[in-house]
Design brief:
It contains 15 helices and 5 strands. The protein has a 5-stranded parallel β-sheet, with helices on both faces. Helix 5 links the parallel strand 3 and strand 4. Helix 10 packs antiparallel against helix 11 and helix 10 packs parallel to helix 12. The mean pLDDT is about 85.
């Protein structure tokens, strides 16, 4: 267990070990990379090492502190996430918590996901706190890119989380591409070799999405979604317009919001299928950042 058990590059493990070994009494970090779940796992692992009851610069995953970190029930762990960007009220509440005493007598861990989505007001409210975190406070800001306010970046230690290749993850190229390189999905697949070609009906995409978002830990449901998307994209030339509409309406019903649709478009983009141009894909993804109807965006993309 510990840092060596993380599914990340050897260079990143070395960086984390060095940071823990030379740990200051507080800190602010930016972890950035393509895989959001991997970013969260890295930040949580760092937090576990800072509070582990067994080790000073590593984690055991067996002590009570590590177990509560894993279950997200640790009294000194705070995770903020908002698909529309963390609001200023949540930032103000976080600042108040950072000024209070530790619940469990050690370090307080604050993880902020998707900080690239924060409005300038929220980002600016955070500046002083991450510049002077206060003893025992550690802030981990997660982002898919460094398109973040320069004033935020200048106050943090920036650590890149590179995507692993299929050899580093110990799977075939086909499995790697099926899961679009997502570490969490590949890790689950390796634990229990799931059938990557279950019998599916792509028109049931809304059912598969509803099942998955009702239980995001179930990889089998996600595999059905991936197979539906693959079938639709690979056969779009031969699918009539009525069935295209059924599929699009199913996507909108099942995915429910822009964040989920954005993930789906990312997966479609990874298929690199000539029937859907990169230009159309980029236009659709850019429009999703605006308050437009999801169905309209998908209609433009698939017709």
């Amino acid at each position: 267990m510990g840092i060596e058990s993380l599914l990340c590059s050897a260079e990143l493990k070395k960086t984390i070990k060095n940071e823990l070994k030379n740990m200051k009494e507080s800190g602010s970090y930016i972890f950035y990379g393509n895989d959001k779940k991997q970013l969260l796992e890295i930040a949580l692992s760092f937090g576990k090492a800072l509070n582990c009851e067994t080790y000073e610069d590593n984690f055991c995953d067996e002590c009570e502190s590590c177990k509560r970190m894993n279950s997200r029930t640790h009294g000194d762990l705070e995770i903020l996430n908002d698909e529309n960007g963390i609001k200023i009220d949540a930032i103000r509440d976080l600042i108040c918590k950072s000024a209070s005493s530790s619940y469990e007598g050690k370090n307080k861990i604050f993880i902020l996901e998707d900080v690239g989505k924060m409005k300038p007001t929220s980002s600016n409210a955070l500046l002083k706190t991450i510049e002077e975190p206060g003893k025992g406070n550690y802030f981990f800001l997660l982002a898919t890119s460094l398109n973040i306010l320069p004033t935020i970046k200048s106050r943090c230690t920036i650590i890149r989380v590179p995507q692993l290749n299929y050899e580093e993850l110990g799977v075939s190229k086909e499995v790697f591409e099926f899961f679009n390189g997502y570490v969490d999905d590949i890790k689950k697949y390796k634990e229990k070799k799931f059938d990557l070609n279950p019998v599916i009906n792509y028109k049931n995409i809304d059912l598969y999405l509803t099942e998955y978002y009702g239980n995001t830990s179930c990889l089998e449901n996600k595999i059905k979604i991936y197979n539906s998307l693959r079938y639709f994209v690979e056969n779009i030339k031969w699918i009539d317009n009525i069935d295209k509409l059924i599929f699009i309406e199913g996507l909108c019903r099942g995915a429910k919001d822009r964040e989920n649709i954005f993930e789906i478009l990312n997966y479609i983009g990874s298929l690199r299928n000539k029937t859907i141009s990169i230009e159309k894909l980029l236009i659709a993804k850019n429009k999703l950042r605006l308050p437009v109807l999801l169905k309209g965006v998908l209609l433009e993309m698939f017709f």
